[in-house]
Design goal:
The chain is an alpha+beta fold. It is built from six helices and 15 strands. It is globular and about 65 Å long.
């Protein structure tokens, strides 16, 4: 009996400890993911099935190849190779900045990025402040969504009873790191709002930075004249006309290039990002067009 009583007390203590740990963790800034972007710095880099030279070589990467590093073990970096976990030697990689995911006010639906590892802490602070300002704005949208949801449930109780999905609103944010070569950083942030209906409304906003000084770059900082804008518009139009399976534009004036046009850096140029329904059907998502730098420089 004494042993049984001790076991019960141990179980109760374990449950309390687990609840306490959960509470403590839930009140800390949550880092949902930490990844690094790196570029292969040697002509040929062997890819192995495990973290060590004794593991099988499963392939190789050429110089300049970009990889996402998910974890590091001693002198090895974990990557994905042909969809599977693999490892490469860390010293043969050149790293960009580290991007970490946080949850604003610990709300799981409000994810936003922050950067670390910049040589200039002033630049790091500037970039993080711009991204934090975005998160603050997203939080206001989130609160408005909650207020609207409360209102419709108050005004339309019968509708909400018969069609619960029509009254269950949602708002969430996600992001992708599209470019991170140690010089430029491009992050595309998505806001998704659902207020009943077949699907939600999603928008994409790009944040592009010069890593050395933290300056944010807008499209009009690159397309600095009407001539450059016109060249990019024509290039994008010609590309779209060759891909009717994605785009439904029919004339040059359907392609709008202005201060509100989103973009991100790619090797050799930029990619324009168009919003849902702007130049294509909903199924096309956020259509992109790569613009070689030779078009606008």
């Amino acid at each position: 009996m004494k042993g049984l009583k001790t076991m019960k007390l141990s179980l109760v203590f374990a449950v309390i400890l687990a609840m306490f740990s959960t509470f403590v963790m839930s009140n800390e800034p949550v880092k949902a993911a930490t990844t690094k972007t790196a570029t292969v710095a040697v002509d040929k880099l062997n890819v192995r099935s495990g973290a060590g030279t004794n593991y099988k070589t499963v392939g190789s990467l050429k110089k300049g190849t970009k990889v996402t590093v998910y974890a590091q073990k001693s002198s090895w970096s974990e990557i994905r190779y042909k969809g599977k976990k693999a490892y490469v030697t860390t010293k043969y990689l050149k790293f960009g900045v580290t991007v970490k995911t946080y949850k604003y006010k610990n709300i799981s639906d409000l994810k936003y990025p922050q950067v670390t590892g910049l040589q200039s802490k002033t630049a790091e602070k500037k970039i993080n402040q711009a991204l934090l300002n975005y998160a603050k704005g997203a939080y206001k949208n989130y609160l408005k969504m909650l207020a609207d949801e409360k209102q419709i449930k108050h005004d339309e109780p019968q509708l909400c009873k018969e069609s619960p999905y029509a009254c269950d609103y949602g708002y969430y944010t996600t992001y992708d790191v599209n470019y991170n070569d140690g010089k430029q950083l491009s992050i595309l942030i998505y806001d998704s709002l659902y207020q009943g209906g077949a699907h939600g409304i999603e928008t994409a906003t790009s944040y592009n930075f010069t890593i050395s000084n933290g300056n944010q770059i807008k499209l009009m900082n690159i397309l600095t004249s009407k001539t450059k804008i016109s060249k990019v518009q024509k290039y994008a139009y010609n590309y779209m006309m060759k891909h009717p399976e994605i785009f439904y534009i029919s004339k040059l004036s359907d392609v709008h290039i202005n201060k509100d046009t989103q973009f991100y850096y790619v090797d050799g140029g930029i990619k324009l990002v168009f919003q849902e329904y702007e130049v294509g059907p909903y199924a096309a998502g956020f259509p992109t067009v790569k613009i070689p730098s030779s078009v606008y420089k």
